[in-house]
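This is your field. Please look over both lines of this record.
***
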Amino acid sequence: MFSALLPMFLFAVVSAREAKEGEVPYQASIRTENGHICSGAILDKKWILTSARCLMRIRRREVPYVVVGTNDVTAPGTSFPVETIHKHPNYISYKHDIALVKVNGTIKFNDKIQPVQLPERNTKPEVTMLYSGWKGPSDSYRTNKLLMRNVTSIPSAECQKQLGPHLERDQICTLDNDAYRKGQDFFDDKGGPIVEGSKLAAIASVPRRKNVASVHIRVYEVLPWITVTRDPDTIVH
């Protein structure tokens, strides 16, 4: 019914700004009773894709849940208890920093809640993408509203010059676009979706400030794991 909405995910943002309600309908907030932990991307009616490292922030006695359908990180939105968490089997610190969260319940789609499309190829260098998320406790110019800003993919060789030679196959590096006003535009929201056109290109892993390369996880490179985790009976060739 709502598949016709998907082309509306095509963005052209020249500076960071607050997202309008329903403008990033695939955005999810993973929370505990102590507030927002990290962002995620809605894949379907049961599954959220996010950062494995971010989920490590959840303390033993905290109960995580997923909120969708709101741009305000303090608003209740539509919430679902977390049924299971599946970290990538090769996750170690910053490597393979990706996880799937299965909700207890069924996410119903509408004009403010939609799944994002999975990619059909890897993102090339020099591509402008949209990164969305919320500001965290360490960010300046705090706001409860969902923010969005452009980032540009850079060649792996350029990233390695900044960060060293050890770049995994499933990692992609980006730089913030030059138009941003430093701290006012910056947000460090791990697990946040990074979209190329209407496709989920990456999940935010290590966002960094302007002129320093950020490192994220390429969704295309982990598609076989995503497929098998969501449906263990699937045969991946």
Q: What stands out?
A: The longest strand covers residues 78-87. The helical segments are 52-55, 156-163, 223-230. The radius of gyration is 16 Å. Confidence is low (pLDDT under 50) at residues 1-14.
